[in-house]
């Protein structure tokens, strides 16, 4: 299947400018062109864009994404380094998840604390409620 740049942007969730930028910085191989000379993205291109989006979401720097893309073009010869890049990024993501979980634990603690305060205030301000909460 073949997709115009607008359709590829819509399907990938990236802007047309981002697609052109990724092409310019060599994250994305220049797509094939249709008979009129317009970019024609393939399903494989869209899968690669999806992967690049995941890498960006993990916070991977463009520099490493470019290295990964360059190694990908080399085929299996670059597989070891590509794996190393992903292993390191996974470690970084795991650290960030742990940090966010710690923040979530603090938020949960504070929310529970405020819920206890609200329950106490509700009982003090409405003695009839006290019998129902016991």
UniProtKB/TrEMBL annotation:
The keyword Chloroplast does not apply. InterPro entries: DNA-bd_dom_put_sf, MerR-type_HTH_dom, MerR_fam. Residues 1-71 form the HTH merR-type domain. Gene3D superfamilies: 1.10.1660.10. Keywords: DNA-binding. Pfam families: MerR_1. This is MerR family transcriptional regulator.
């Amino acid at each position: 299947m073949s997709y115009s740049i607008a359709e590829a942007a819509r399907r990938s969730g990236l802007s047309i400018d981002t697609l052109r930028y990724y092409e310019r910085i060599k994250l994305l191989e220049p797509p094939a062109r249709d008979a009129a000379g317009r970019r024609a993205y393939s399903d494989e291109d869209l899968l690669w864009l999806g992967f690049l989006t995941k890498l960006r979401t993990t916070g991977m720097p463009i520099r490493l994404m470019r290295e990964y893309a360059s190694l990908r073009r080399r085929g299996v010869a670059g597989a070891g380094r590509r794996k190393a890049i992903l292993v390191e990024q996974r470690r970084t993501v795991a650290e960030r998840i742990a940090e966010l979980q710690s923040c979530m634990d603090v938020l949960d603690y504070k929310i529970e604390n405020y819920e206890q305060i609200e329950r106490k205030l509700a009982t003090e301000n409405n003695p009839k409620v006290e019998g129902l909460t016991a």
